[in-house]
Amino acid sequence: MRKTGAFLIAAALGIAAPASAQTNGFVPCEEHWSAQLTTLYVGADGEGIRSFYDGAVTLLRIDTEEPAAASSGVIVMMWTGSELADIERHCWVNWGHGLVQVDDTQSSYDPAEGLTLTIPTSRYDEMGEQSVGSIRFRLNANTGTLTELD
Fold first, then answer.
1. Residues 6+ apart with CB under 8 A from 99
2. 44: Cα separation from own chain's centroid
3. Taking a C-beta distance cutoff of 8 angstroms, is the pair 121, 44 a contact?
4. Which 3 state secondary structure label does DSSP give 39?
5. What is the rounded distance in angstroms from the CA atom of residue 122 to the CA atom of residue 24?
6. How far apart are CA 30 and CA 131, in angstroms?
7. What is the per-residue DSSP string for 99-116?
8. DSSP, res 44
9. Which of 116, 117, 114, 118 is nearest to 142 (CA)?
């Protein structure tokens, strides 16, 4: 199972296209250069990776190293479908943060709405001051969608 998971992550991330702008929200992985295997930030004990929905949803911390004050982000991967022929991969990236704390992600589930995740983040302003915030979004496995929340 572990080898299969690593293969699926590699397959999902290997198709990123070059771009240079920071994202202000989620974009499909295929549309942003930061969603590459080389940007994964995984600690020695597996820090930087969290799974939900029995492994159908995976969060991956990324760090592009530059720009130094806004190099962190998160990749969200979701697999939908119950039969092999129906399985689809959905992948989004949110990048341009000073820090993204994937390991501290809070989750809640509503059967009518889906899985809501809140990831603590921080950003640096032009003066070098750090502000704390979060990325909050809802995933719906039935529709294969990610909805950003306030």
1. 72, 121, 122
2. 19
3. no
4. helix
5. 13
6. 29
7. EE-GGG-EEEEETTTEEE
8. T
9. 114
Which tokens go with 94?
């949110």
The 10s digit of each residue's pLDDT in 64-120 is 998 888 899 999 999 987 776 678 899 999 999 999 999 999 999 999 999 999 999
Helix (H) or strand (E) holding 5: helix 2-13
Residue 1, pLDDT above cutoff 50: no
| Rg, the chain, Cα only | 15
Distance CA 63, CA 104 (A): 17
What's the pTM? 0.81
Total residues belonging to the chain: 150
pLDDT(122) > 50: yes
